[in-house]
Amino acid sequence: MKTSVGFWLLAVLLLAASSFSQAQIVKKYFEDGDTLQLSPQPVSEKITSIVWYCDEYLLAEWVKDLIELRDHISFKGRTNLNTDTGVLEIRDMTAADSGVYSVEINNQVQSQVYKIVEIEDVPQPEVKVTLLCNSTSESCKLVCEGDVNKAGPLEYFWKKDDGEWEQSGQKMEVLNNEETQRVKTFSCRMKNLVSESDSEPIDNPLYQEKTPDCGLCVTLLDAVMRSLAVLAPCWAAVCLWTKRKTLCKCRNTHS
């Protein structure tokens, strides 16, 4: 008898583990105070019973002509269940409402479950430069950091000086080349499903202030000298003509 009981207990546990492993887990995120809406998978027949669970606890229940719609535990007065579609709405969500939500329609447990996670606004990030990074390094790594434990899935963006934001990863490697050496500052942006925040710009450790190109100076000076060489005879002719005109006026006056 003991062997038989142990066998069936083991079988039940294995069946439960198999069902969970085959579940389709859908992640959904909410902010504190949000209204959450959960939809069951469509069913072909008319719905006659609905039971929603949060983890292993009963959340909302309805059975046609037998059990009036009711909610339970901490969800009391915060739910709305559509008995035609099975869609569940929960108002004023809090961190305590995080968990795994599942539904049973017409006495059939659905394979799709929801993993509900609270999400917070992203903090203001900070750009940090890895050690041993200076103007002589071949490259440097920048990291966009912040306390993002409850920020959910994140996207990262980077900006050079006052340029456009470009999506990238949390870390960015910059090579020490002529293009990078002209960049004065780097900034990063964090973005999640509900908010975004930008860092303060940091100085580029690879920045090098460029001095005027001597070759260009020589070219400009040569151009100026050539122009003067062309204009000098004209200027001399104008001066000579002006001088002669002045002398002529003087002679006419004395006459």
TrEMBL record:
GO cellular component labels: membrane
Keywords: Glycoprotein, Membrane, Signal
InterPro entries reported for this sequence: CD2/SLAM_rcpt, Ig-like_dom_sf, Ig-like_fold
Locations listed in the record: Membrane
Signal peptide positions on this chain: 1-23
Main subcellular location: membrane
Annotated protein name in UniProt: Ig-like domain-containing protein
The species this protein was found in: Oreochromis niloticus
